[in-house]
């Protein structure tokens, strides 16, 4: 070998080592000791290996395997083929291929294999599977098979050519089979016989990795297979461990951890794609049991359908970007630039034109005044999307608030539909529909939206219609008269409402000479220097507006350093976001010192917009955004929230949230389970409760056990001397006011009213108090503070309520009403009123005592949550009334416009009377526990004030119902037929329990699996829930409670979950298989039960003997098929059969479809006897005993479609001979 050839080999080898860093050896399972080796021959294989247990692969059990030298573990037959083919192969060969390529271990390297049940290996495998597959928490490995290719080279290579080391690990518990691929180092892809380079092993027909079932439908290929990217596979992962891929392989499809598979291709969790070439079917990987949700959705007029692997994608033809920077300058989506110095909160951009295919979003900015200056700057950015409110405060790095809770980055919401992450110097919020919002925590924010939002936005960023001339529009569509008018027109509510509109004409202070200096190349003119680092961007983005904004900033603040750097940065970031390369401008301008990077990181003018983090160690590999300036971690370190740490100091992922190493956090909202993030990503959780002197609450964005501090509000007879936060003001004596009202989110609702001073009370007469606490009403005074009534009755003091939650006691000079740990109200004979309140009500109060949030500047908040600086408006909003409806009507009659007949209607059983009617009320059993008087009175007053608005009635009744529920009051059991106080009829008809509020609503329930709701046209567009909105449009029924589109049926169900039916009274009578589900309200548990179904069970349910009877074209329901699609009933039949008795489920599904057909005028009954569904009554009648429906008749399909004449009886002529009269077993 000559010198040049030798040098070429070593250069190639060293290059490969530099380019492909080996992963830590700990990635590999142990090998060598006691392992068997394959023969060291080209294309060789092990002998047939008989396994100790059967291994399931694509649903088929196998008992023998071969370890093939060419990177393959095959079942039943060996695989000697050296050139890989693209999957699927349909020749019957089933095999696992961690790296199918032309290996020659005869030249270099060893291939080891071992079947083991070693406890240490089983423990490690168990831990790995539980960690990688979140739904396999109970998995326990009983068998492991390890195959290792160590430092093997390729055919045609030599002892000095590059080598690969990789591993396949098969894990089983006897039922489930998993495969781990571990890639320690990969340096070559191809043997020379397959076209590879003899020195590097690259090129030609490159390696294939994945699974082949031997037929057309069962296959899976790892990303990069048979492409040059396969040499980088050691840097990829689906379990956040670079070099490792994990799969569940026993089902009909390969189930990758943290993702889905479709057409043999890997899809990341939350990934969106279109499954057809024309982009008409939009899908999303949900990662619930490999579930993919699809719906009809075409590309918008501003998108183009493009191929994406085996799928398609709707890519925006264009993107609009709005930026806010400096002393705020606003550059709209259409390029209009203006300067506005308001320090309030403003709407930047929102989806304002209703369109079913466009998701809603809103972006608001809160500004603040620069200290001692006339100009403002950004203080925080708020993004509302997908039902989340995301707050990015000034100075933020690595943390944001999501729904008021401080959370470390990165954050993934709704299975990847919303991602929040550090992007260069900014925090980024990115959605799957193309919205990208960034804020650098200092002065620069950007909002990018796809072209599909053309003509659909509003706010200071404009309407995005390609016309900058109409971006000066107010919300009412009229042109603004000035910048001030424009800015103020888009002002939005913010808790810190003390702000102003800022300067208009006197914002800058430069003379002509200074201004000319700032326009020069040493200052703002640097932006358009022809030989500068930003010159290339000038041909795409006109720098003129940015130059003028820069001069504006320097002249307004007279700061030649930081502000100049920020002005240049704003233009540079706009350029980089468009993918335009820029030079290191900070070095040339001396702005490097203005960037402070965290320890173990350094500044880069072009770093990844999606940096690798502990939560996603390969994030940069899938980043589609151009590079941006920012801080990047040094080699060997990775970003953990706001710090760069060694890999072994990374934190933990728990329920989609990232926690740093050593961080304690609460896993439950009520502070009963606390967890600790430990080394290795392990989370240790333990039971804990707050101490007696602590309360579980959220303070400053953090949930925890905080000292049970109390705050004090102090009032005299005509002044608030001290609100909870320290404000003071006077209030008149001739009106009654609400002193305190807490928000409904707290379980202990409190309300304190102070009555107007009575005209005949004299100077010493005290104003009366009404206190609602512990669901009881306490009244004090009216003449003196010694008069006390509880629920309208005089009581002896001290008074102790039997619930233990209320005490009333007196001293010589005061009366105290107390609910320990919650509130203490002390009313002195001198007229002073002390209200001591627990901090559990932080951010949760209203009334004269103010909004308790440690901020005295926002005390004047109205009942609707908005705040004002007008004391008169504030006082008027909290005026209330006295209890007078047991005698004179006083203020209440006045509230009803002195219309006594109207008041009489509102007091009837058809209105508020339903709350306290003693003769026929649904709340009869609650009256002795929760005082109805206050709720009844409130209901009357709200109806009077609203002019009889029925939603006010519903809300008032619901509040009392909620109080009853919190007091654990059970509903009243009745026999049907029954008529409620609201003239609602409850009766049985043809086996259904009917709740009838004719003519508007009728509800039918068969007691098992059929519920039918009929509503009148009068309710069109007035309903919501799982049954949709009844507006004639099928496409908008798949939305959440907040009106947002959902990605799965589970998410849809969870969004409409209520608190009213958490347990089933009949659960004890259910079969063992269904009992856990009846006592649960966890939608995902149903998915897990379905996943537990073995394939044989599913196939049996799908077959002709069971659920296929629903779709049989010659079957029972053939006349109905043209009117009602049976497929949803068929799918429900075999899926529900996973956790129901099979025959009972079949009969129930037949009944459900049969009843639906009957409502369309098609009656079929022959299935009852032919399917022997009568015998199911024996089981069903047991389920129905002691049922809450009392004497309701058996379901229609059990009663032989013969409605009985007596309640709870089955006709003697029933086609079910097993039943006797009365529904007992025959």
Automatic annotation (TrEMBL):
Residues 320-500, 711-886, 969-1065 form the VWFD domain. Transmembrane segments: none annotated. The lineage of its organism: Eukaryota, Metazoa, Chordata, Craniata, Vertebrata. This is Alpha-tectorin. Its main location: membrane. PANTHER family: ALPHA-TECTORIN-RELATED (PTHR46160), VWFD DOMAIN-CONTAINING PROTEIN (PTHR46160:SF8). GO terms for biological process: cell-matrix adhesion. GO terms for cellular component: plasma membrane. Keywords: Cell membrane, Disulfide bond, Glycoprotein, Membrane, Repeat, Signal. It comes from the Eukaryota. The keyword Transmembrane does not apply. It comes from Myotis brandtii (Brandt's bat). Residues 1-22 form the signal peptide. The keyword Magnesium does not apply.
